[in-house]
Amino acid sequence: MWPFINIVIFFAAVVGHNIPACKAPSYRLNDGNHMPRFGFGTWLGLDKDELPIPVMDDSVQKAVELAIDAGYRHIDTASSYDDEDQVGRAVNRKIAEGAVKREDLYITTKLWNDKHAREAVVPALRESLHKLNLTYVDLYLIHFPVATKTKAYKPFVKIDYLETWQGMVEAKVLGLAKSIGVCNFNLTQMERLWTSSDVKPAVLQIETNLNIQQPELREYCHNNDIAVMGYTPFGSLFPSRARPDAPPPRVDDPSLQAIAQKYNKTVPQVVLRYLFELGVTPIPKSVTKSRIEGNLDIFNFQLDEFDRQHLQTYHSNYRVVDVKFFSESTYYPF
Ligand SMILES: NC(=O)c1ccc[n+]([C@@H]2O[C@H](COP(=O)([O-])OP(=O)(O)OC[C@H]3O[C@@H](n4cnc5c(N)ncnc54)[C@H](OP(=O)(O)O)[C@@H]3O)[C@@H](O)[C@H]2O)c1
Ligand SMILES: *[C@@H]1O[C@H](CO)[C@@H](O)[C@H](O)[C@H]1NC(C)=O
Ligand SMILES: *[C@@H]1O[C@H](CO)[C@@H](O)[C@H](O)[C@H]1NC(C)=O
Ligand SMILES: *[C@@H]1O[C@H](CO)[C@@H](O)[C@H](O)[C@H]1NC(C)=O
Predict the structure, then answer these.
(1) What residues line ligand 2, using a CB cutoff of 6 Å?
(2) Which domain holds residue 190?
(3) Which single residue of 93, 116, 202, 215 could bond 164 by disulfide (Cβ 3.0 to 4.6 Å)?
(4) Is 143 annotated as a binding residue?
(5) What does the pLDDT read at residue 23?
(6) Which CATH number is 265's domain given?
(7) What is the mean pLDDT of the chain?
(8) How many other CB atoms are there within 10 angstroms of residue 114's CB atom?
C-alpha cells in the first residue's frame, strides 16, 4: 500500500501547478487553494529545560528575508513563536522591494491554546494579522487540540476543538484565512473533526521525520484529501538537538552518508527529499544562510526504492515534540 500511495502523491505533486519563481512544486488543497510543497520554519525551539528560547534579536526577520531570496515562498509562523512581527517585516520588505508579490507567498500562522473559545478565534487571528501587517493569511491552523486558560501550558479548560473549529470556519468565511487546518491532532481526533464538520480541514501539520514517519495519519490524510505538513523534519539528526534517549540516526551515520554521496547531496537534503517523496510538505527551520539555501535544493534528484526502504527502517514512533506538559488535558493527542 505504502509505495503505491507514495508514487501517486509524488506524481500529483510534480505535475501540479507551479507558483512563479518558486522552486518547490505546489499542491492543490481540498478547498481549491494551492500550497507550495516545501516551507520555511521560524520557531526558535525549546531549551534543555523545555522552555521556549526567547526571541531576543531580529534573527528571524533576517532568516525569512534570506529564505525568500533563496526561493522559499511558504513561511510557517505561529502566535506562540512570538515572531509574527519579524515575519511580517521580512515579508513586507520583500514585497516593497519588488522581489515577490503577496499572492506569490504562502503564509501560515496558528491559533494558540488560550484562544479556543469559538468567539476568541477571529479576534486572535486579527491580532496575528496586525503583527504580521497582512490583510489575510493563506493558512490558519489550530496549534494543538488542547485548550488552556492562559498563554502558559496550564491550567487546562474543557473547550472541545469542534467548537474551536466553528471559529476557524468563521475566519475562512471572512476571508482572513484562505484555508484552515489543524496541527497535532491524532487519528481519532482527525476522524471526529472530519465527520462532524461541513468545512473540512485542508491541512494537518504533524511532526514528521525519520524517527516518526506517520504512516497511519499519512494514509488517512491521503484517503481524505488532506495535505500533510511535516514539522521538525530533522528530528534528532543533529547531535546538538538530540536528547540522550533519541534513537539513531545522527547526521554522521555511515549509511546516510553513503546515500548522500551517491546523489552528490548532503544528509539533511536526503532526509528532506525522502519526506517530500512520502507526500509530506517539510518546513525546515534555519537561521544560517548556507543551510537555508541548501535545505531548499532538493528538487533535482530522486531517491531510488532501495534507499527509500533503508530510510523507512528508522521509523520508531519517537517524538521530539511530545508536549508531556499537556498530558493531563482531556484532549492530549499523544
Ligand atoms: N505545529 C507545531 O506544533 C510545530 C512544532 C514544532 C515545529 N513547528 C514548525 O516546524 C518548523 C521546523 O521544525 P523545528 O524548528 O522544530 O526543527 P527542524 O527544522 O527539524 O530543525 C531545526 C534545527 O536544525 C538546524 N539545521 C537546519 N538545517 C540544517 C542543516 N542543513 N545542517 C545542520 N543543521 C541544520 C537548525 O540550526 P540553525 O537554525 O542554527 O541553522 C535548527 O537548530 C519550526 O520552525 C516551526 O515553524 C511546528
Ligand atoms: C505594513 O506594510 C505596508 C505595506 O503593505 C508598509 O507600507 C507599512 O510600512 C508596514 N507597516 C509597518 C508598521 O511595518
Ligand atoms: C556536486 O554538488 C556540488 C554542490 O552542489 C557541485 O558544486 C558539484 O558540481 C557537484 N558534482 C557533480 C559531479 O555533480
Ligand atoms: C487521541 O487522543 C484522544 C484524547 O486524548 C484519545 O482519547 C485517543 O485514544 C487518541 N487516539 C489515538 C489514535 O491515539
Answers:
(1) 89, 92, 133
(2) 34-317
(3) 116
(4) yes
(5) 83
(6) 3.20.20.100
(7) 94
(8) 18
